Amino acid sequence: MSLMDETSSTKGKILIVDDEADVREVLKLHLAAGKFSVLEASNGEEAITLMKMGSNLVQVGLIICDIRMPKVNGIDAINYIRSNAPSIPILVITGYPDTNLAVSLMEKGVKGYLVKPVEKDVLLKKVKEVFEAPQDFQYA
Fold first, then answer.
1. How many CB atoms lie within 10 A of CB 116?
2. Cα 114 to Cα 123: distance, rounded to the nearest angstrom
3. What integer best gives the mean pLDDT of the chain?
4. Nearest 5°: CA angle at 23, between 39 and 35?
5. pLDDT value at residue 54
6. Tell me: the pLDDT tens digits for 107-120?
7. Does the structure show a pLDDT above 70 at 128?
8. What pLDDT sits at residue 134?
9. 13-129 sits in which CATH class?
10. The pLDDT of residue 52
11. pLDDT surpasses 70 at 8
12. What is the C-alpha to C-alpha distance for residues 132 and 32, in angstroms, rounded to an integer?
């Protein structure tokens, strides 16, 4: 099965963008327990490259994005996603909480701002809220 086949349906599909492999693994395990399918990127540059694969942007139902990352940081990645795929909801997860940044990101349409380490129940609750909320598009 190709990556495009794997990403043809967005319902329950989540892209985790975080430079810490341990964090991605924990999030992936938490989300798998909630029956979600996960793609991973180790930084914003990798996430953007992944999303550009194929003739159309790779579609996911949700992106969980860290802020402080090498190469392309979370702010730049979020700006790219908002410009090129504005209907994909984004949750921010960070180890460096910043109230002003949180407000700024929410004004850009980010659906939530979670502080690491995120408890499994908190993560799953927020992810389910995002998937259950009315969206600007229909899932494939």
1. 15
2. 8
3. 86
4. 45
5. 62
6. 988 999 999 999 99
7. yes
8. 80
9. alpha beta
10. 83
11. no
12. 18
Helix, strand, or coil (residue 55):
coil
Report the residue count for the chain.
Answer: 140
CA dist., res. 61 & res. 78, Å (int): 15
Here the tokens at position 7 are 């990403």
Euclidean distance between CA atoms 17 and 44, whole angstroms: 7
State the angle between helix axes of 44-52 and 74-84 in degrees (0 to 180), rounded to the nearest 10: 20
Q: Which two tokens mark 96? A: 């460096």
Tell me the C-alpha distance between 93 and 125, whole Å.
Answer: 14
Task: With residue 92 as reference, give the H or E element that holds it.
Answer: strand 90-94
Whether the per-residue pLDDT at 126 is higher than 90: the answer is yes
pTM for the model stands at 0.86
The dihedral sign for the CA sequence 108, 51, 47, 12: positive
Q: What residue ranges do the domains of the chain occupy?
A: 13-129
Give helix then strand counts, H and E, for the chain.
6, 5
Token readout for 29 is 């395990």
**The two structure tokens encoding residue 61:** 């139902």
What residue has token string 């990798």? 46
Q: Which of 108, 98, 88 is nearest to 67 (CA)?
A: 98
